[in-house]
């Protein structure tokens, strides 16, 4: 486990970004309470990768199980970014779908999805795409059963592709500033639209367009936290037993919000232009602000209230 005194307090904090999927899953639970389901001893590997002579992982790149958080029962799934970038294949998707379906039946206090993925594996694209659709349906089934589905994003690979669609369909999203969330990744956009549209090598552009701060300011993220496991854990605990309504009224309201956003920001060419429109003072300085400074800036601009309402 990687530990650092991130804040100069003398207290060692464990980096979420640098942790493995199992370290993250255990870190979200009360001490020694996490129980892994279908661990590597079950030897659940992708038949598609084996057929292509591609190395496999005995957990297929995802850790699932249950534990306790504030002594409440929770289910946890953590994608392993170190294996194929956390990409979703048939077995990977089936494990996640099964966990969500079980949640709909057994009704834990929450399901925590620790997402780190570039999307669907090209090696098993059709099976992966089917898996995404099954995961999406299972998320809605869990939410219909009034089980909060909480997404946590803080890994080095971000959350892209099909899971970038699934994430906003959940009850809550928690991100760190270091995290990224989008449907299409930078390289995909550049390949499809050209470097003039989006320069994937411009890391500052990538983070201010897809990073945690921008997603928070747009109202897509419910909580922005520091890059350490305790901060993610504490934020997730606040949403236990707090499902967000999933009905026609909520869908209509979301569509209206998105329509308003397009009308307001459609002419903006950069995230900085959007931040200025939101009333952020000195928007060009936002990327350099630490979390406390950023929160103070948001509060002063009077755009922060909408992000802590759920």
Can you walk me through this structure?
This protein is an alpha/beta fold. The chain has a domain at 3-181 and 221-243: 2-enoyl-CoA Hydratase, Chain A, domain 1 (Alpha-Beta Complex), CATH 3.90.226. The chain is built from twelve helices and nine strands. It has helices spanning 21-27, 47-51, 90-106, 125-144, 161-166, 186-193, 203-210, 212-217, 229-237, 248-265, 271-277, 291-301; strands at 3-4, 13-14, 35-37, 62-69, 72-79, 110-115, 149-153, 172-176, 223-225. The strands form two sheets. It has a seven-stranded mixed β-sheet, sandwiched between helices. α3 (90-106) packs parallel to α4. It is globular and about 55 Å long. The two termini are 32 Å apart.
Short description:
The protein is an alpha/beta fold and 310 residues long. It is built from twelve helices and nine strands. It has helices spanning 21-27, 47-51, 90-106, 125-144, 161-166, 186-193, 203-210, 212-217, 229-237, 248-265, 271-277, 291-301; strands at residues 3-4, 13-14, 35-37, 62-69, 72-79, 110-115, 149-153, 172-176, 223-225.
Question: Which features characterize this protein?
Answer:
single chain; 7-stranded mixed sheet; 12 helices; globular
Q: Topology of this protein?
A:
Layout: E1 3-4, E2 13-14, H1 21-27, E3 35-37, H2 47-51, E4 62-69, E5 72-79, H3 90-106, E6 110-115, H4 125-144, E7 149-153, H5 161-166, E8 172-176, H6 186-193, H7 203-210, H8 212-217, E9 223-225, H9 229-237, H10 248-265, H11 271-277, H12 291-301
